[in-house]
Amino acid sequence: MTRDRSDVLLAVEGLKVYFRSEDEIARAVDGVDFEVHRRETVCLVGESGCGKTVSALAVMGLISSPPGEIAAGRIIFSGRNLLNENDNGMQKIRGRRIAMVFQEPLTSLNPVFTVGEQIAEPLRIHLGLPEAEIRKRSARLLQDVGIDSPDERLKDYPHQLSGGQRQRVMIAMALACGPELIIADEPTTALDVTVQAQILKLMNRLQQSHEMSILYITHDLGVVSQIADRVYVMYAGVIVEQGSLEQIFKTPRHPYTQALLAALPSRKKRGQRLYSIPGHVPNPAYKPPGCPFHPRCPKATPPCRGLYPGMCGFETGHWARCPVTAGRGPEDWCR
Question: Which residue has the higher pLDDT, 170 or 268?
Answer without folding.
Answer: 170
